[in-house]
């Protein structure tokens, strides 16, 4: 058998629809060896953009908000879903302004990543934004309160290496950004 | 309002059960400001361990396998679900042996991370395993073929920075491991 044979999709059934935020499907496949697998759950979540915003003063801008998954407040990077017909970078810049009241002039893509290669769970578009500045109050419109926090770059690296940023997209983006910055 | 008020969970309803691999629930909450939100989809996926295995020769061990989410083969780090009563490190070592035929003597935890702070989607336990050695053929028992690939550490860093590792847990673990290794 070639090592590059695909699975053949036989069927796809919508089982939960919480559009536009989430949809789940059961998929059936025929494997290259002929076996059939059924009810493989795929979870479609919207693509999102996440930004590591480094200010002109050398601080990183974070948001702190309640997250029901951990029943606690988490410190995370600014992130949000792409709206229809919105480019990943446009979404990143919009969320940075909405959540942090910040703008940045120097943007760089650090790649796109699927959160779960088995089931989907959305794609993260990761950005480094240098020359960031806070120019307005936070006004996210998200559910729940959000507050903005600045951390110096060395403290971000220390906390990241200590595992303190438990939100995976935030920890992923911090790693990529620190490497891009040569820190 | 205090910045540290929790949401109050009012109800939780199972909407999809693909145990032991996936379950989805609708949750209802009362927010601190009194608003009620309903049908907040939470996706429970099993916790998993993922390992960055560095061999005594300075290579990193990867697995290559078909992933239906991208309908393609991906190069990823060894990873798998924790079995019942299994510690994260024990799961990491078991998967490394099953998927890569490799063992390692020097293990270090690089933290645990929730894949989606809104909806869950599982927790990743990340490990760095040094002094790794391939001692047996791959025998994962997973669905589909799996092949083992060695990449020199500098090439791993180059590819990671170029965004070539699109599986988020793999990219997260590479970043944390490279920093832990001081590379």
Structure commentary:
The structure is a homodimer of 183-residue chains. The longest helix of chain A is centred in the C-terminal third of the chain and has 14 residues, at 168-181. Chain A contains 3 helices and 11 strands. Chain A has helices at 88-100, 153-161, 168-181; strands at residues 8-18, 22-30, 36-44, 48-55, 59-67, 72-76, 78-81, 102-103, 106-116, 120-134, 146-152. Helix content of chain A is 20%, strand content 49%. The first copy, chain A, folds into 2 domains: 8-44, no CATH class; 48-181, Nucleoside Triphosphate Pyrophosphohydrolase (Alpha-Beta Complex). Chain A is of the alpha+beta class and 183 residues long. The model of chain A has no long low-confidence stretch (mean pLDDT 94). At the A-B interface, β1, β2, β3, β5 and β6 of A face β1, β2, β3, β5 and β6 of B.
Second rung of CATH, namely the architecture of the largest domain in chain A: Alpha-Beta Complex
Tell me the radius of gyration of chain A. Answer: 19 Å
Order of helices and strands of chain A: EEEEEEEHEEEEHH
CATH fold-level name of the largest domain in chain A = Nucleoside Triphosphate Pyrophosphohydrolase
Q: Largest protein interface?
A: A-B, 74 and 74 residues
Highest-level CATH class of the largest domain in chain A = Alpha Beta
The number of helical runs of chain A is 3
Q: Share of helix among residues of chain A?
A: 10-25%
CATH superfamily of the largest domain in chain A: Nucleoside Triphosphate Pyrophosphohydrolase
Strand tally of chain A is 11
**Envelope shape of chain A:** elongated
Number of domains of chain A: 2
How much of the residues of chain A is beta strand, in percent?
Answer: over 45%
